[in-house]
Amino acid sequence: METLDHDSNVLVVGASGGIGAALVEQLLAGSSARRVWAATRTPDSPRLTALREAYGERCMPLAVDILDEASIAAMAATLRADQPRLHLLINAFGLLHDEAQGIWPEKRVESISAEGMLTSYRVNTLAPALIARECLGLLNHSQRAVFASLSARVGSIGDNRLGGWYAYRTSKAAQNMLTRDLAIECTRRARRVICLALHPGTTRTDLSEPFQARVPEGKLFTPAFAAGKLLARIDAATTADNGGFYAWDGAPIPW
Questions:
Q1: Which GO terms describe its cellular component (predicted)?
Q2: Residues 136 and 190 sit within 8 Å (Cβ to Cβ)
């Protein structure tokens, strides 16, 4: 990435997921960033351990529980103690289904579960909000910085033609509003920060696994492909894109 030089610091939250891990790998291999923080509940995973061994202190696995407010605050404190500036923060996590908790995309309004809705909101909306609260100060400096969250096209109100998937759609729509709200605030107090909502396309990960058979040929992406496209969009972003919602190919998505 051309916008990340040897003094740049990056944070990827959700770094053990399919897209998150691919983002960490490509940021390490394709940029000269000083440090890539890989935040996840499993910082000692084999994939991150291998990257740590290959890249040394450029790759910094970091423990965080995105459902724990104190854990998010501790993550930000660790970053501040090391280097009080971030140049890129990517929220690379999301919840669509969880068999253990009985969460599944709803086809009918009768299938809505209060617990499922609240859990989806906590992961897809509240976690990015708390991360923004704790990390905006790290992004707010004299250089360009980007706050990007992986959203989903189904979170678009204007593009919703099929209905259903109440918990996921509404929590992602709320996440989009958070991104837009933060972007407006940044124009007043953090003018070098660019806030983006990004749709990675349908990617071969655990999140999409139950639905992959229905994806048209050529539209199911590998995590590496999706990560590369997302990083290219982030790299090209200017302050004119602040508050935008974009697909993996750079095309704008209606709110």
A1: cytoplasm
A2: yes
Domain 9-247 fold: Rossmann fold (3.40.50)
Residue with token string 């390490």:
28
252: three-class secondary structure by DSSP: strand
Instruction: Name the token pair of 83.
Output: 């280097």
pLDDT digits (tens, 9 = 90+) for 214-225: 656 666 789 999
Check residue 162 and report its DSSP letter.
S
Alpha carbon separation from 172 to 78, 103, 136 (Å, rounded)? 28, 15, 21
What are the beta bridge partners of residue 193?
A: 145
Q: What is the pLDDT of residues 54-89, one digit of tens each?
A: 999 999 999 999 999 999 999 999 999 987 799 999
Residue type, 209: E
SS3 of residue 167 by DSSP: helix
Length of the chain, in residues: 255
Task: Check if the beta carbon of residue 20 is closer than 8 Å to that of residue 98.
Answer: no
CA separation, residue 45 to residues 54, 93, 150 (Å) = 14, 16, 22
- Phi then psi dihedrals of residue 205, to 5 deg: -135, 175
Angle in degrees, 0-180, between the axes of helices 127-139 and 166-189, rounded to the nearest 10: 20
Query: Which strand (E) or helix (H) includes residue 59?
Result: strand 59-63
Measuring CA to CA, which residue among 203, 202, 185 is closest to residue 194?
185
Task: Flag whether the pTM goes above 0.85.
Answer: yes
